[in-house]
Every structure is written in structure tokens, then in C-alpha cells.
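Quick one, C-alpha cells below:
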């Protein structure tokens, strides 16, 4: 089967009214989001469900339920799934998912049997990158790196209108570059992966560790968590930082510094024109991105003698994954 990534396509169709609706689903470590998407990348209707733990069959059941429910209200021409994990090059199997229970899972075949229709399956960060290149912050850029910061770090590379998948479909797993030898254990099995230092999980862990030391600096975090250290999450720390809580802002800035260091490594290898930062943790905005830019410049190979990539927030926010999955499925059917 022809890969939907094989050929570049126009940035945006000219006649959106003639483009059929597509359904996109974004599967993350904590939520499953589904949306009906038109030809301009607009979400007509969205539904969300909690990810049912690490039970693969339960996750697939939630996906099927969402597709059926939205299909009852909309004329859906295509269905695209963005899943967190390593995909094979054909988009048929989830080879491995650190945050879900899929291990060499024939996800496309399973879902097509459940739904009775063709389904495109892709990596969730690839889907988000495609959406940002088509409709968001990456429009007009010839080489763009997308980073999605949530439970972990998703990544993707768009070159000249094509999502780069690598030789075996595994390109873009930037969150699992080892950035600290012997560091924190990662769910992928290694130690010191980048996502253990620059993700929502990392932010929550740092807040809980600080509270566990009985530091007076953690008083605001514990108060917001009603004294329950386990309830200090990355989302809570981000919200507190946006409200001006000093310790939360310091923790977010530290995550930003790790983010910038990792991006400097990627720039040495890939030399992109643009980094687009999305995912739930990107809600921290400039509180995280400005420290990231400073760390990026400080660690950039050849600094002072080369052009620097821009670092910007994603334009489509948490909708990017489902918008991209829907659009990739639409492109495949053309």
C-alpha cells in the first residue's frame, strides 16, 4: 500500500467546501481525543475519554466507541488514528508503546475489523507535526521539528512537505535520546532519556520530590494538592506557574532548560529552520519557552557563527494530533 507520507501535498486545499469530513483520534497516555475535521483543519465536533489504563483491548474499545458515536452525526469519509508509540513503516503495527500496553500490536487490522472500514494509523507526534505544517505554526517552512510535551516527549520531522519516517518507521523518537547517562529510569527501559527531564511527568516528579524533602519551597505545591504529595502533577505545577507561584515557575523554567539542551542536540544533527512545541505542557508558554531558547543558544554547536532555528509554541494546541491524523487519512484516500 502506498504510504501517505511518500509525496508532498499542497499546504491547504483551495476549496474547503469540496473536501469531505475526516475523523481523527489522538491516543495519549491519559486521554483519547476524537474530532471531526473539515478541509481547513477546523474541528467540527470533539469528544474525549480517559485512556483506560494500560489495557490494549480497552483502549481499542474506546476508539471504536468514539468513531461510531461521531459517525452517527457526521458523514465521515476517512478515519485516522494517532497513537503514542513506535510504528512500522506501513502504519499497520504499533511495534512498542512505552506508555500503553501495545507490543507488536496489529492495530490497523484490529480497528478495521471492529469498524468495518479502512483506517490510517500513525504516530501521534507525526500527526501533530503534519497538522502544524499544514494549518499551523509550520506553514511555509521547509524543515520543521515538532515536539509534543505531555506524559513523555513525542517528536517528528517534516521535510519539504513530507513526514520523515526513517528506514524502519522509527524516526522522530527524540524523547528517547539519552541525555543523562545513568539518569532516571525511563518506561522505554533505558536510563536518562530526554523525556525524563523535559516532560509533564518530569515536572510532576520534581514537584513531588521537592515536597518529599519537606522543603518550605514546596508549601504552595502541597497546599494546591490539599496536602497530598501524590497529587502534585505536571498539570498542577503548570497551572500554579501560570498563576505566579514562585516554586512552580522555577520548576517549569528548569524543564525549559532541559528542553533547550535537547533541542540544541537535535539542531546539531538535523539543522531545522523551526522547532514547534506542543502538547499539554506547552500550556506553560513563555515561562518554559524562554528558558528553552536561552539553553538552546548556550548549547548550540557553532553558536555565534550560524543561523539559529526559531522556537515557537504550536498554533493548534491540544487539537494538533487529531487534526493531523484526520488530514493524513484524507490525503491517503485521494
Amino acid at each position: 500500500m502506498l504510504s501517505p507520507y511518500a509525496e508532498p501535498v499542497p499546504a491547504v486545499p483551495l476549496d474547503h467546501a469540496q473536501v469531505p469530513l475526516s475523523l481523527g483520534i489522538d491516543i495519549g497516555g491519559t486521554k483519547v481525543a476524537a474530532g471531526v475535521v473539515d478541509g481547513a483543519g477546523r474541528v467540527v465536533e470533539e469528544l474525549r475519554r480517559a485512556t483506560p489504563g494500560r489495557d490494549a483491548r480497552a483502549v481499542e474499545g474506546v476508539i471504536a466507541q468514539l468513531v461510531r458515536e461521531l459517525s452517527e452525526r457526521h458523514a465521515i469519509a476517512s478515519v485516522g488514528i494517532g497513537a503514542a508509540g513506535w510504528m512500522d513503516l506501513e502504519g499497520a503495527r504499533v511495534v512498542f508503546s512505552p506508555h500503553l500496553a501495545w507490543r507488536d500490536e496489529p492495530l490497523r487490522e484490529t480497528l478495521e475489523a471492529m469498524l468495518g472500514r479502512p483506517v490510517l494509523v500513525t504516530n501521534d507526534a507525526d500527526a501533530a507535526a503534519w497538522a502544524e505544517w499544514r494549518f499551523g505554526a509550520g506553514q511555509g517552512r521547509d524543515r520543521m521539528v515538532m515536539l509534543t510535551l505531555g506524559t513523555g516527549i513525542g517528536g517528528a520531522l517534516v521535510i519539504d512537505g513530507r513526514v520523515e519516517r526513517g528506514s524502519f518507521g522509527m524516526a522522530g523518537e527524540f524523547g528517547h535520546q539519552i541525555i543523562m547517562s545513568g539518569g532516571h529510569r525511563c518506561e522505554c527501559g533505558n536510563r536518562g532519556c530526554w523525556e525524563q527531564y523535559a516532560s509533564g511527568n518530569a515536572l510532576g516528579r520534581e514537584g513531588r520530590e521537592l515536597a518529599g524533602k519537606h522543603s518550605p519551597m514546596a508549601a504552595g505545591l502541597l497546599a494546591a494538592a490539599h496536602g497530598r504529595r501524590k497529587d502534585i502533577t505536571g498539570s498542577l505545577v503548570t497551572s500554579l506557574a501560570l498563576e505566579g507561584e514562585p516554586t512552580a515557575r522555577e520548576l517549569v523554567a528548569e524543564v525549559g532548560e532541559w528542553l533547550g539542551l535537547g533541542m540544541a542536540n537535535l539542531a546539531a544533527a538535523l539543522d531545522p529552520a523551526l522547532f514547534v512545541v506542543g502538547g499539554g505542557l506547552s500550556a506553560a508558554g513563555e515561562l518554559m519557552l524562554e528558558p528553552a531558547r536561552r539553553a538552546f543558544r548556550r548549547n548550540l554547536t557553532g553558536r555565534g557563527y550560524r543561523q539559529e532555528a526559531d522556537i515557537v509554541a504550536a498554533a493548534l494546541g491540544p487539537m494538533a494530533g487529531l487534526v493531523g491524523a484526520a488530514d493524513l487519512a484524507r490525503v491517503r484516500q485521494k
